Amino acid sequence: MDEQLQATPICGRHRDLKALMAPFGGWDMPIQYEGIIAEHSWCRTSAALFDICHMGEFLFQGDFAASGLEDVFTFSVQTIPVGRSRYGFLLNEQGGIIDDLIVFRLADDQVMIVVNAATAPKDFAVIKERLHGGTFTDITAATGKLDLQGPLARYVMVELIGEAVATLPYFKFITMDILGVPAIVSRTGYTGELGYEIFIPAEKVCELWDLFLTDERVKPAGLGARDVLRLEVGYSLYGSDIDEETTPLEAGLESFVNFDKTFIGKEALLRLKEQGVTRKKVAFEVSGRRSPRHHYDICSEGNAVGTVTSGVFSPMLGRGIGIGFVTPGLTAVGTPLTITHERVTMEATVCELPFFKGGSVRA
User: Fold this and answer.
1) 278-351 belongs to which CATH class?
2) By C-alpha distance, which of 63, 86, 94, 32 is closest to 265?
């Protein structure tokens, strides 16, 4: 039976632009327009526009402590200043990652929670079950989201949206009027470049998309380029690099876990810290231009020691790059590895993240 895909409000615009469309997280999404390499390059040098309306958004209002919201995530909600956001995890009892997400502190008693598309229904159910107070609402259908990313994004935003965004620092957001409606503009993104995420009522998102594309510095980019961009800077992709069978300790993401507070899954993570993990995330560069792929084997001295979870050809490095999980003891920088799949063999070397360090993200 064919998968019933959801469509973003901009889906018709993508088809008009002859985008290659494909399923992603239950949605019909643009993979590329002009081409992945061209769109990647445009984001690294100018300003790329991404339709991210498939992401999930939830609104919570109430007392964070009394409602139990403070115990839901691996980070403190109460200590996020109003106007700032924080990244972290929603975990299961075993310490596995149900989702990675960002919480935006809108007011003293109000936050917006932004989650991944494929996990949004489960995320909402899990969070709601853990709450015992406050008002919790799924605003996904009513919310449009566009990402403008690239070193020229600030200039475009100032000219088209307003001067208020000019001095917005990394991981801070403002609420402002755009196209006659209240919108949230956040200095965040998933590309390693200077960029903005704009949350606007769904009925206005097509108009905003069209406005951005009137600027010659802006071109649309699909999920193909976005995947290359995020991997070059070492960002994890939910469903590939992290999932419910993976803990933040294994994934090298312990810095986003606050062990000084209570959260679901904490006890399991503490036990794992004491026992030691049986696998760890590793980043590697391939000696040639071939792309390591999801599920390829990672070998050491002829023995299978792990699996690739993400891999691409990096235009910025001119070689294949990837991340995966291997047995502990093989993650030191410089460690030689071999990536294999059927008749494909690639020599690789463990390296540090990010692969690409020249982005404008904090400019």
Assistant:
1) mainly beta
2) 94
